[in-house]
Amino acid sequence: MNKYNERDEKDVLRSEVLEGFSEEMIELIKALHKERDSFGEMGIDLEEKSFYDILKTLAHKYDFEYPEDKLIKLAREVKTVVDDKAKYTDWSQRDDIKAELKVALILLLAENGYPPVDRDEVYKEIFEQAENFKKYRGG
Predict the structure, then answer these.
(1) Distance between CA 50 and CA 14 in Å, rounded?
(2) Per-residue DSSP letter, 91
(3) pLDDT tens by residue, 16-69
(4) Are 122 and 78 in contact (CB under 8 A)?
């Protein structure tokens, strides 16, 4: 997009500029479709895939291993907890509900041995991601 927007005025209608832009857009659309469809192969829905991505990213960021099958199961359970605690319209303004969400997530993560080493940063990032996910998903 930036390349297209930053093109020289005299290049606006040049075919190679338009073709290059078209090819890049087609590749971007293909990549988006592949990402969108990737969760189906895993047996999870789009929201569960979002939590899976968060958990997997944190494992890489903080350099610990967590089995793939357990990661998928945990992503499903995190989504269930977040949906349950954030079901009220005003949940993001209520400290009591946010506190319940944090406690429920801590218990769930502990039950599943995630992370396998105690890292407060991991818990903090999971809480932030869970809150942001529900805020911006409109639910």
Answers:
(1) 40
(2) G
(3) 555 666 777 777 777 766 766 666 778 888 888 889 998 999 999 889 999 999
(4) no
Measured between alpha carbons, how far is 27 from 14 in angstroms, rounded to an integer? 20
Q: How far apart are CA 109 and CA 55, in angstroms?
A: 10
Q: Which of 85, 86, 80 is nearest to 51 (CA)?
A: 80
What is the 3-state secondary structure of 61-127? HCCCCCCHHHHHHHHHHHHHHHHHHCCCCCHHHCHHHHHHHHHHHHHHHHHCCCCCCCCHHHHHHHH
Residue for token pair 């078209």: 22
The residue length of the chain stands at 139
DSSP single-letter state for residue 68: H
